[in-house]
């Protein structure tokens, strides 16, 4: 592992047998996993380049059990890493050798469907897609739709503020979550928000959403559901140049048109997806846009005409419009399967996640091409083009010495480029460990200290998911006391991460 994590507490490891017994008393039956072989399934999340078996895995199935586990670990000074379905692509659920891996996979119940208030109250282990399936019979759905929606849990979506292809028009997770139940490290259970879009006091839901498991463990979530639009049709537009596709994205948004979704793939991603799904993608183009327009039929028909005109003005060479729901779904099937499809053409890949202003898309694409040549590694680009969220897939072979290090350096340069162009380090995957050491590229020491003070308000001992998000781990009592003078850090030989 090339990323430094907090040193294991040997005193805690020496008490492992005692700790496991105490946890079994709280979560009886099959709720505790402590054998090395059985814990292998939890040694990594979706960022499989980094692995670390946990000290023990605990699988509670009630909020009360979660509260008791956290209260025990708090009293014993034991670190805890919350985990949903393990689909995180930033290492957010990477375990610690001296920590408890707290899995929420048993929280699989939808507690309430309230069509009058257009909300669903769900446990965190319910998959993203299952929420839409539960309300589909009444013509409703849950809008955020990550590509991993068949597997990713709604709790993990809240922790990472996940997006998806339809978030351009309908918002990210944070725009669709109204309330939650959260258990603090002390074992205290809090209820934040509710069924109303507006609540008195501070916007605590805005703090919890995207907090990556650093503030508390979410055990219940209230999400907004929407009525399905009357009509939804997709356009598949091909371009001879990637930059032209980027210009088309900016032109559509600049014309005041907000599609339900607008995605881009470059040639390597197009070929991989087509070979995997057979969606009918054109193979002789350099870039492909999938643009979905939804709403009343008369509005959709008008918008299709306007988008066709804009696309032709930007130099499109192919244009196909879906004529049925099956065809629309087929257009999206290739994009949804792009990540596993690329896995068929490369032994390994790193999926990056950065965001830029839409107008900077052509510059970002040109820079990624230059970096690909610099590092001698291929790249397949898949973008949430409408909101500037880039997902370059860096292709490498972990069996070749030095390639993982080259891939990491390539990815870091892409993220630096995003910041330089006026964007940010992440769009929906979170910071985790992947982008942790790049946080100073975007934030000053003052910014980072202020963010850490917020964590301290929720988790004063720093026991929840330590080693993630922040490049330097401070104890709350000493936060801000590290002094840099004339560009020199005191005690430079002390390991920091």
From TrEMBL:
- GO MF annotation, one: FAD binding
Q: Which Gene3D superfamilies match?
A: 3.30.465.10, 3.30.70.2740, Vanillyl-alcohol Oxidase, Chain A, domain 4
Keywords attached to this Swiss-Prot or TrEMBL record, sorted alphabetically, are: FAD, Flavoprotein, Oxidoreductase
In terms of superkingdom, the source organism counts as: Bacteria
Enumerate the spans annotated as FAD-binding PCMH-type domain.
50-228
Keyword Oxidoreductase applies: yes
Kindly indicate whether the keyword Magnesium belongs to this entry.
Answer: no
Membrane-spanning residues: none
Task: Give the cofactors, semicolon-separated.
Answer: FAD
Q: Write down what this protein is called.
A: FAD-binding protein
Specify the species.
Bradyrhizobium septentrionale
Query: The organism's lineage?
Result: Bacteria, Pseudomonadati, Pseudomonadota, Alphaproteobacteria, Hyphomicrobiales
């Amino acid at each position: 592992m090339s990323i430094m994590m907090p040193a294991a507490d040997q005193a805690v490891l020496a008490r492992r047998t005692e700790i496991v017994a105490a946890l079994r008393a709280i979560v009886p039956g099959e709720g505790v996993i402590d054998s090395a072989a059985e814990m292998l399934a939890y040694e990594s999340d979706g960022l499989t380049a980094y692995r670390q078996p946990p000290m023990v895995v605990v699988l509670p199935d009630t909020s009360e059990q979660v509260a008791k586990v956290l209260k025990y670990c708090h009293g014993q000074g034991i670190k805890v890493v919350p985990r949903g379905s393990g689909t995180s692509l930033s290492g957010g659920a990477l375990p610690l050798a001296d920590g408890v891996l707290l899995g929420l996979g048993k929280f699989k119940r939808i507690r309430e469907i309230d069509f009058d208030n257009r909300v669903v109250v769900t446990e965190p282990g319910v998959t993203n897609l299952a929420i839409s399936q539960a309300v589909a019979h009444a013509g409703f759905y849950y809008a955020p739709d990550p590509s991993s929606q068949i597997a990713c849990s709604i709790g993990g979506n809240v922790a990472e503020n996940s997006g998806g292809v339809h978030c351009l028009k309908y918002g990210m997770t944070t725009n669709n979550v109204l309330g939650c139940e959260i258990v603090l490290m002390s074992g205290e259970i809090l209820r934040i928000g509710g069924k109303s879009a507006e609540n008195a006091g501070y916007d605590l839901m805005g703090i919890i959403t995207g907090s990556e498991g650093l503030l508390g463990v979410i055990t219940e979530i209230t999400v907004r559901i929407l009525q399905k639009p009357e009509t939804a049709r997709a356009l598949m537009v091909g371009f001879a140049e990637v930059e032209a596709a980027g210009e088309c994205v900016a032109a559509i948004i600049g014309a005041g048109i907000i599609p339900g979704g607008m995605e881009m793939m470059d040639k390597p991603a197009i070929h991989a997806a087509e070979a995997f799904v057979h969606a009918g993608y054109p193979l002789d183009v350099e870039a492909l846009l999938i643009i979905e327009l939804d709403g009343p039929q008369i509005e959709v028909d008008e918008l299709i005409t306007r988008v066709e005109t804009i696309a032709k003005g930007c130099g499109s060479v192919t244009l196909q419009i879906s004529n049925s729901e099956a065809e629309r779904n087929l257009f999206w099937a290739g994009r949804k399967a792009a990540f596993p499809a690329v896995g068929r053409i490369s032994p390994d890949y790193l999926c990056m996640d950065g965001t830029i202003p839409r107008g900077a898309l052509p510059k970002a694409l040109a820079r990624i091409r230059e970096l690909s040549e610099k590092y001698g590694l291929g790249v397949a680009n898949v973008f949430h083009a409408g909101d500037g969220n880039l997902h370059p897939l860096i292709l490498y072979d972990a069996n070749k010495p030095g390639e993982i290090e080259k891939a990491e350096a390539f990815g870091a340069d892409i993220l630096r480029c995003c910041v330089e162009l006026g964007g940010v380090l992440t769009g929906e995957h979170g910071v985790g460990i992947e982008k942790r050491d790049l946080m100073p590229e975007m934030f000053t020491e003052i910014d980072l200290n202020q963010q850490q003070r917020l964590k301290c308000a929720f988790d004063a001992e720093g026991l929840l998911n330590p080693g993630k998000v922040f490049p330097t781990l401070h104890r709350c009592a000493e936060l801000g006391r590290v002094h840099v003078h004339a560009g020199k850090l005191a005690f430079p030989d002390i390991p920091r991460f």
